[in-house]
Specification:
Length: 173
């Protein structure tokens, strides 16, 4: 489920449509964006990451970025680079080895529970993706607590310097 915020500058009327989170297409979205990264659509950082970590993954939550130079605000995917959690991978391997050996400690577990443990791929952050402004190309940073800053009126309009305020809220999927 995602959350949408229509934000407006009361001074100049600038509008930002910020759809945050993820919807039901999340699993397919990750697959598509991984392929785009591997092809270099997101620059060298992503392409090189997948060359070095073919079992890697990315996060695809919708967030808001702010350009460090011009202040441009835009909704983007966070695209953080993720690697498998080695502790979970070791536990998964221990489980598989026990089942393959016929160890009663492991073979007595309910089949659906075993499948759920084996199929889940848990990842941890390896490196944050370096975002760039679509307007000027400078470095852009993710606003980690966008909603909090929005409600505290700390989001500044990139057009006039006024304060951006929440105008409407909606849930999307």
């Amino acid at each position: 489920m995602g959350r949408g915020y229509i934000c407006k500058c009361e001074k100049c009327g600038y509008t930002l449509n910020a759809s945050l989170g993820s919807g039901m297409i999340y699993p397919q979205l990750i697959k598509d964006e991984i392929e785009n990264m591997k092809k270099g659509h997101y620059g060298e950082q992503g392409r090189k990451f997948f060359e070095e970590h073919p079992d890697g993954s990315i996060s695809c939550e919708r967030v808001v970025s702010r350009c460090t130079k011009c202040g441009n605000l835009e909704p983007v995917y966070d695209l953080n680079l993720m690697i498998p959690d080695h502790e979970i991978e070791q536990k998964r391997q221990t489980l598989m080895d026990g089942i393959n050996r016929g160890d009663p400690k492991f073979t007595s577990l309910p089949e659906d529970r075993v499948k759920s443990i084996i199929e889940i791929k848990r990842c941890v952050l390896y490196e944050k993706y370096d975002h760039h402004c679509s307007k000027c190309g400078s470095k852009a940073e993710i606003i980690d607590e966008f909603i909090k800053e929005l409600r505290q009126e700390k989001i500044i309009c990139p057009e006039c310097g006024g304060k951006i305020k929440e105008y409407r809220f909606l849930c999307w999927d």
